[in-house]
Amino acid sequence: MSEPHPESNPESPIARRFRGFLPVVVDVETAGFNPRRDALLEIAAVTLQMDADGYLSRLETHAAHVEPFPGANLDPKALEFTGIDPYHPFRFAKPEREALQHVFQPIRQQVKQTRCSRAILVGHNPSFDLAFVKAAVERTATKRNPFHLFSTFDTATLGGLAYGQTVLARAVQAAGIDWNEASAHSAVYDAEKTADLFCAIVNRWRELSGTPWPG
User: What are the residue numbers of the active site?
Assistant: First the structure.
């Protein structure tokens, strides 16, 4: 017997809200702008949960520091901007494949638990993050990438719509969320603040629309 479609499962409000997709907020820190040439140095993913009334909140954060892949370019300007020393021993960095599996495994589990069809990446200008994730997946021959390969939710666009701000720090503060500039440009911090922003926008729409589900 086939399993019910996520949209018809009353125990999975997040699947119903996003047409069977599970939003997962991702931020990466890198050693440049070219996903095939420049090193992926940090990856963080924040899973979300939705209550029965349609309100979204953060669930868990999964993150890893990543070893530069063999032959990776390390742009000094990018490293100065992020403050990352790729070879610092206390980074406890993982090889790319191990880092991806560390982050992907709990996402795949939540996709299954919520009866979603797959995850969809939420990010601030997410084409950048998705491109680095896809390049790392290809380099490492990682199987079962949980993310949709081209669709995303962009909090820069949503922040411009909801608050008139497209810069992450400004959109976060416009939403009434604390922002610490000294902590920025860490994958975990930026992913969690992006998650808070996305939740605030979805929940604001919930309040304005008066219903938990679109349509």
Answer: 185
